[in-house]
Each structure stands twice: as structure tokens, then as C-alpha cells.
Design a protein that fits this description.
This protein is of the alpha+beta class and about 400 residues long. About 60% of the residues lie in helices and about 15% in strands. Strands 1, 2, 3, 4, 5 and 6 form a six-stranded antiparallel beta sheet that branches. The longest helix is centred in the last third of the chain and has 24 residues. The relative contact order is 0.08. One of its GO terms (cellular component) is nuclear inner membrane. It is found in: Nucleus inner membrane. It holds the Pfam family NEMP. Belongs to the NEMP family. Keywords: Membrane, Nucleus, Signal, Transmembrane, Transmembrane helix.
């Protein structure tokens, strides 16, 4: 039986089991339990669920015989144990004599889980921005080209093959072999970089440049539906990363539900607000709106008219107004110029016609007309002083 943080040294094939007695808490969301087997030479490690499965491994069967050849032989192996797994057993087989190895169980915070969760969180909440970003488009295209170049080559070759051809069996095997090679490279990436860094760097630069050229040729997505599909794909991928980055399933589900609600919170809130408004309108008594009196209607019209005329004068005096174009389109340029300088916008004849048709006097019109009459009396010709005195006498 293995225990946490206790190193067991062995030099022969051995079967071991680890029993998890701790109940996971909420703070164990990014905690990982691992069994590490570190040996001086290559060993084969087989993980099973309990002791009964270990006994089955000792019995001869065709499946066990072929699976023993498929299992990898490593000198440093990590076996992941679920937080809710009660018991995990493993069998270590040495392949050469004088092989020494150690087995240890560790429970620790795994930064990889946190980074996976953070990546999913970013993809979910920033998917709509990333789908429209050119930097994300080119970087993702180059990364896919570098990582899955063999898969892309097989996909291109399959386009030129006839539909009914036995070569498809080879292509399917090529896909599987490519995936196996990608997994193998990632497992031994550090060793490959240490020994063959020149070839690895040349491969990354060459394939990265070709991937960039292909992405540049087709350009970023412009169709709105294609952008929406990419956004939804990134958000779905982000939810998967968030779920896989948390070790406690019910906590992961709660986080996903919270993320979905917060992302689309405006829709249920808007729906609840509309429903509340409709219920309030159905229950409350309809109050008829207060109508304006005739005096209020007249005063409001005069105030708004004065305000609109002032705004029109300001616009005509501003640089935005083309004076020559405006003058060429109106019938009385002099009257327009007088209005811009501050004169009243109506003539006495127009005011009298309006009063005869509608019977409504205008305080503004009367005031403006009286001011203009007095100013005309003051500015009259001095050659007719008698006429000026008579006009002043009539005004008095």
C-alpha cells in the first residue's frame, strides 16, 4: 500500500495500490493526485482500478498479450488519480536486470489545471473579440500549421484521391499515426529540443512562414455568419477547458452555469423588466393625460418659435452655413439678410393675414412690429420734420 509523500524504493516487478481516504473540498479544485514511477532504466507501468484487476493481469489472455506491446516503456511515468477515486492500483514491470525504481504519491496544487481553466475563461468571455482579431487569426493559423502539419498534408492528399479507392484505408491509418506522432513529440519535447534544436527551430520557422502565407492569402473572416460560428466554437471550447481545468465536477458545473448566466445576463434581465412593466400596466388604472389650455398652447408655441429662430440665426452666422448657396435658393435675399441681422421674420401683412384666418394674436409679433415701427420713426428722413412729429404724436 502506497501513502502520500512516502517514497518506496524497489528493484523488482511489483504491484502496488493507493487508497484515497480524504474527501475533496472546495479548495481542491486545482489539486491533482499523481503516482510517480522514476526508474534508472525503462519500465512498463499498468494502471488498474483495484486488486481484482491486478489478478486478471496475471492471467494469460490475447488482449493482455497485445496490450503489453502497445504500452509505452518509460523511465519516468506519472499516473493521475482522480480525487473521487477510492483506490488505484498499478503494476510495474522491469525489462532489464539491475533496474532500480522509486514510487511516490503526491497531492499538490497543479498550475497546469489553473492555466487550462484560465484559458477556457478567456476563450469564453473574449470569444467574440478574438474571432474578429487579426492577430488571433494569424497566430492560430500558424500554430495549427506547426502542430498539425502532418494532418494537413494528409488532408490535402485526400482531396486528390478518387472517392472509391483503397488508398483511404491508408489515409485513415495516416491520421491515426499522425496523432500518435504529435502526442509522442509533446511528451519528449524537452529532450528533442535539447538534442535537435537546430532541426526543430528550422521546422518551426519554415512551417510557420508557410502557414502565415496561406492565412495571408485567404485573409481574416469577413462574413458575419462565419464570425458567429467561430465565436460559438471558441466559447464552446472555452467551456470544455473550464470543465477539464476543475477537478471537482459539481464545482465545474456551477462555474459553467454562472459563466453562461453572466455572459447572457442582459437577456433575462431585459425579459424580466418587460414582464414587470406589463404587469404594472395591467394592474394600475389608466390616467388620461392632461391637455394644455389654449393660453398654455399659445405661450408654448411662441417660446419654441423664438428658440428655433435663434438657433436658425446662429446657424446662418456660423461657418458651417454656405451663404452664397443659401442666397441663390431664396426669393428675397434682402429679407433673409435682415432676418439674420435680427429683424422680425414676418411682415405686417403676413401677421394680419394670420390673425384674420386663425383669430389668434401673437404677443411676439405685436412686440416685434411695434419695435420696428418705432425704429422706423426714429430713422425717418429729416427733410420731413412735420411728418415725423405727426407720426410720433399718433404713436403717443
Amino acid at each position: 500500500m502506497l501513502k502520500e509523500s512516502r517514497v518506496v524504493h524497489m528493484n523488482a516487478s511489483q504491484q502496488s495500490c493507493y487508497e484515497n481516504v480524504l474527501i475533496p473540498k472546495w479548495h481542491d479544485v486545482w489539486t491533482r493526485i499523481q503516482i510517480r514511477v522514476n526508474s534508472s532504466k525503462l519500465v512498463r507501468v499498468t494502471q488498474v482500478e483495484n486488486e481484482e484487476k491486478l489478478k486478471e493481469l496475471e492471467q494469460f489472455s490475447i488482449w493482455n498479450f497485445f496490450s503489453s506491446f502497445l504500452k509505452e516503456k518509460l523511465n519516468d511515468t506519472y499516473v493521475n488519480v482522480g480525487l473521487y477515486s477510492r483506490k488505484t492500483c498499478l503494476k510495474v514491470e522491469i525489462l532489464e536486470e539491475d533496474t532500480k525504481y522509486s514510487v511516490v504519491v503526491t497531492r499538490r496544487f497543479d498550475p497546469k489545471l489553473f492555466l487550462i481553466f484560465l484559458l477556457g475563461f478567456t476563450l469564453f468571455f473574449c470569444g467574440d473579440l478574438l474571432s474578429r482579431s487579426q492577430i488571433f487569426y494569424y497566430s492560430t493559423g500558424m500554430s495549427v500549421g506547426i502542430v498539425a502539419s502532418l494532418l494537413i498534408i494528409i488532408f490535402i492528399v485526400s482531396k486528390f484521391m478518387p472517392k472509391k479507392s483503397p488508398i483511404y484505408i491508408i489515409l485513415v491509418g495516416g491520421w491515426s499515426f499522425s496523432l500518435y506522432l504529435i502526442q509522442l513529440v509533446f511528451k519528449n519535447l524537452q529532450e528533442i529540443w535539447r538534442c535537435y534544436w537546430q532541426y526543430l527551430l528550422s521546422y518551426v520557422l519554415a512551417v510557420g512562414f508557410m502557414s502565415f502565407a496561406v492565412c495571408y492569402k485567404y485573409g481574416p473572416l469577413e462574413n458575419e455568419r462565419s464570425i458567429n460560428l467561430l465565436t460559438w466554437t471558441l466559447q464552446l471550447l472555452g467551456l470544455c477547458f473550464m470543465y477539464s481545468g476543475i477537478q471537482i465536477p459539481h464545482v465545474a458545473l456551477a462555474v459553467i452555469v454562472t459563466a453562461l448566466c453572466s455572459k447572457n445576463l442582459e437577456y433575462p434581465i431585459h425579459w424580466l423588466y418587460i414582464t414587470y412593466r406589463k404587469m404594472c400596466k395591467a394592474t394600475e388604472k389608466t390616467v388620461p393625460p392632461r391637455l394644455l389650455t389654449e393660453e398654455e398652447y399659445r405661450l408654448q408655441g411662441e417660446v419654441e418659435t423664438r428658440k428655433a429662430l435663434e438657433q436658425l440665426r446662429e446657424y446662418c452666422n456660423s461657418p458651417d452655413c454656405s451663404a452664397w448657396k443659401t442666397v441663390s435658393r431664396i426669393q428675397s435675399p434682402k429679407r433673409f439678410a435682415d432676418f439674420v441681422e435680427g429683424s422680425f421674420h414676418l411682415t405686417p401683412n403676413e401677421v394680419s393675414v394670420h390673425e384674420q384666418e386663425y383669430g389668434l394674436g401673437s404677443i411676439i409679433a405685436q412686440d416685434e412690429l411695434s419695435e420696428e415701427t418705432s425704429s422706423e420713426g426714429e430713422d425717418s428722413d429729416p427733410r420731413y420734420p412735420g411728418q415725423q412729429n405727426n407720426s410720433l404724436t399718433r404713436v403717443d
